[in-house]
Specification:
The protein is mainly α. The protein has three helices and no strands. Helix 2 packs antiparallel against helix 3. About 0% of the residues are buried.
């Protein structure tokens, strides 16, 4: 904390509350503690944000791989269906293709739902940590 900042704080306290305080007043200890807690909170949230970002990237990559696998599976099904059409006829191939297409959204939705629950829990944890830090700062300011 710079001397100018301390001087501004002393002036603000004197103006708002009509109390003159000295450089060694205990209120500056609380101010220093509050600043320290806020810096630590910012660091903790940055770490959590980085973890969240890494998880989102991993999830995104997983979705990309999953989509690629599904596209390959559908392509293989279409190729197989083309061969069957030449051999057996169109009716059985169309049913096979419809089944594969109808199953794909259910699988993807299931995976999205799992990931959404994981992200919701992570957000709830981050919010709780922020609330706890705010309560500590508020309590320290009142003490």
């Amino acid at each position: 904390m710079t001397l100018d900042t301390l001087e501004e704080l002393k002036n603000e306290i004197a103006t708002k509350h009509g109390i003159a305080i000295s450089q060694d007043d205990p209120i500056f200890i609380l101010h220093t503690l509050n600043e320290h807690l806020m810096r630590e909170n910012v660091k903790a949230q940055q770490v959590m944000l980085e973890q969240f970002k890494a998880e989102m990237e991993a999830i995104s990559q997983g979705w990309s791989m999953n989509s690629k696998e599904k596209a390959e599976k559908i392509l293989n099904t279409v190729l197989a269906a083309s061969k069957k059409m030449m051999e057996n006829g169109a009716d059985s191939i169309i049913e096979s293709f419809k089944t594969e297409i109808n199953e794909t959204p259910n699988i993807i939705n299931s995976q999205l739902s799992k990931e959404a629950r994981k992200l919701t829990k992570l957000n709830l944890f981050a919010s709780s940590l922020t609330l706890i830090a705010a309560v500590i700062v508020f309590w320290a300011a009142l003490s």
